């Protein structure tokens, strides 16, 4: 038997000293992180990296509220990684050259990451993977952010789904999602292997992710605690207190009956596998409506999967009507003053204004109210859904490239499995039904019911008729 030179003990120890890079992106956690888990199994030192990429072509720049969240989340991730014995390296710039140069500087033998699903990100990741492999680095990607990889769920004809129910049936008919990976007990860092002086990290505070003048993030700080630990605390509290009543109360914004996990899922501080598995555990012993509530909650998590499935198959979801008939919609010229009134919550329609003010103050809005405010902008103000999508993109802490444009196209009627255009929410009836004691409205509009509250911006009946008339052009393009 011949022994190749790479198999000698000396060479093997050199190989072991070479680090593995774990590239963090939309997965700012250490537990159930498949790329980190696989890298740790190699038994090599870990170089943990985050790249703020505002340069690569096609990658949509983050909105203001998202940047605020990212800052807090990175600080939290860095602390968790340090507590386990390693360090988070921060770099800013185009990800391709940065990852290549870190791999070179550190003599890394492997670069691992969890996948992203937008086209620009996929294109970038594919190029980076093939360049790394060409230079002999073991580059691998993992499934960490979705329960069902979009391309694995196919119709009988091998196509993608455009209707939720059969999509979700196909997802749940197969093998159940895997169990979450445990949290690592330690992470051996690269210190001692590399020269710390020549291998530097940016200082997070120099990235300017947090607003300074003016500092508008006070309400966000009061409403949220970004980071992995808070995500799990929210999930635990939701499962213990609200899961059994989720089905009956989830549409009532004053009831606090939903999980509030969306920004934590957006930034990957918690994985959908962890949510799935903990919900399965919590629903044991539930019966009747409480058990149905748990199923309903998992179905909502399924809508997130569906939004990504749609994004994967329609990468220009944020800019193009999925139903091309909507290209004929005769949007009137944009009334900027009216748009500002909507953005600032001064339309004179209480549920709309409460929602828009909640959004501005906290970076979030209850799902029912997102539907009502979006419907009002599109159908009572006749503003193109893309204008609203951009505002939400800038102001939501959970803004993601799939759920946000998906939600807007759903309300507009132009999207996948969307509400029909002619279903126009009446904001006053919605308020009476879903906020009957005006608790949510009063929480968000201090001057509600006084002379200081604005008069209605539009006539609901008139604008509804105008919207339906405009819709005729979609149905019967000339
Ligand atoms: P829960 O009711 O507790 O649901 C659990 C999880 O399921 C959520 O955290 C979320 O990840 C997922 N989920 C629930 N409903 C939906 C849905 N309709 N579509 C996709 N995922 C869902 N959600 C985002 O995460 N990011 C967005 O940018 C976003 N933009 C939206 C824009 C519009 C116009 C509309 C109508 C909806 C949008 N949604 C978006 C979906 C939904 O409003 C939020 O996910 C939900 O309000 C988050 O609250 P929660 O975590 O308490 O949800």
Automatic annotation (TrEMBL):
Instruction: Show the InterPro entries listed in the entry.
Output: Crypto/Photolyase_FAD-like_sf, Crypto/Photolyase_N_sf, Cryptochr/Photolyase_FAD-bd, Cryptochrome/DNA_photolyase_1, DNA_photolyase_N, Rossmann-like_a/b/a_fold
- Record-annotated site: Electron transfer via tryptophanyl radical: 331, 385, 408
Which GO annotations describe the biological process of this protein?
Answer: response to light stimulus
- Cofactors named for this entry: FAD
The answer, when asked if Glycosyltransferase is one of the entry's keywords, is no
Q: Which residues bind FAD?
A: 246, 258-262, 297, 398-400
Query: Which stretches make up the Photolyase/cryptochrome alpha/beta domain?
Result: 18-147
Keyword entries, A-Z? Chromophore, FAD, Flavoprotein, Lyase
What Gene3D superfamilies does the record point to? 1.25.40.80, DNA Cyclobutane Dipyrimidine Photolyase, subunit A, domain 3 (1.10.579.10), HUPs (3.40.50.620)
What's a Pfam family in this record?
DNA_photolyase
* A GO molecular-function annotation: FAD binding
Manner of cofactor binding, per the entry note = Binds 1 FAD per subunit.
Similarity remark = Belongs to the DNA photolyase family.
Specify the protein name: Deoxyribodipyrimidine photo-lyase
What species was this sequence derived from?
Cryobacterium glaciale
């Amino acid at each position: 038997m011949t022994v190749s030179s790479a198999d000698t003990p000396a060479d093997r120890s050199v190989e072991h000293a070479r680090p593995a890079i774990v590239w963090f992106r939309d997965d700012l956690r250490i537990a159930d992180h498949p790329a980190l888990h696989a890298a740790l199994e190699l038994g090599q030192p870990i170089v943990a990296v985050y790249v703020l990429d505002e340069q690569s072509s096609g990658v949509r720049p983050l909105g203001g509220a998202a940047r605020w969240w990212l800052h807090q989340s990175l600080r939290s991730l860095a602390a968790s990684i340090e507590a386990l014995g390693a360090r988070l390296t921060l770099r800013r710039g185009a990800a391709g050259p940065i990852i290549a140069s870190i791999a070179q500087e550190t003599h890394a033998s492997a670069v691992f990451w969890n996948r992203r699903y937008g086209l620009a990100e996929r294109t970038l990741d594919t190029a980076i993977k093939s360049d790394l492999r060409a230079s002999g680095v073991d580059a691998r990607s993992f499934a960490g952010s979705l329960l069902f990889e979009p391309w694995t769920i196919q119709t009988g004809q091998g196509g993608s789904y455009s209707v939720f129910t059969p999509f979700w049936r196909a997802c749940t008919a197969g093998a159940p999602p895997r169990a979450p990976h445990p949290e690592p007990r330690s992470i051996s860092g690269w210190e001692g292997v590399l020269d710390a002086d020549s291998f530097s990290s940016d200082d997070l505070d120099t990235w300017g992710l947090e607003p300074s003048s003016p500092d508008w993030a006070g309400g966000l700080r009061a409403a949220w605690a970004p980071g992995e630990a808070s995500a799990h605390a929210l999930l635990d509290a939701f499962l213990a207190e609200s899961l059994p009543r989720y089905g009956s109360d989830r549409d009532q914004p004053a009831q606090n009956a939903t999980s509030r996990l969306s920004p934590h899922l957006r930034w990957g501080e918690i994985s959908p596998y962890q949510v799935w598995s903990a919900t399965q555990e919590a629903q044991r012993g539930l019966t009747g409506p409480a058990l149905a509530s748990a199923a309903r909650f998992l179905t909502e998590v399924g809508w997130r999967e569906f939004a990504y499935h749609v994004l994967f198959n329609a990468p220009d979801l944020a800019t193009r009507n999925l139903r091309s008939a909507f290209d004929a919609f005769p949007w009137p010229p944009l009334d900027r003053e009216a748009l500002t009134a909507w953005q600032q919550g001064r339309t004179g329609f209480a549920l709309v204004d409460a929602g828009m003010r909640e959004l501005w103050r906290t970076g979030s809005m209850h799902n029912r109210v997102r539907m009502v405010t979006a419907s009002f902008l599109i159908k009572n103000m006749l503003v193109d859904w893309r204008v609203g999508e951009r505002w939400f993109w800038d102001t939501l802490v959970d803004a993601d490239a799939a759920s946000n444009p998906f939600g807007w196209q759903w309300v507009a009627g132009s999207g996948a499995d969307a509400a029909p255009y002619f279903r126009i929410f009446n904001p006053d009836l919605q308020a009476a039904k879903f906020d009957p004691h005006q608790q949510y409205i009063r929480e968000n509009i201090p001057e509600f019911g006084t002379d200081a509250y604005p008069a209605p911006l539009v006539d609901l009946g008139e604008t509804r008729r105008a919207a339906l008339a405009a819709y005729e052009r979609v149905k019967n393009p000339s």
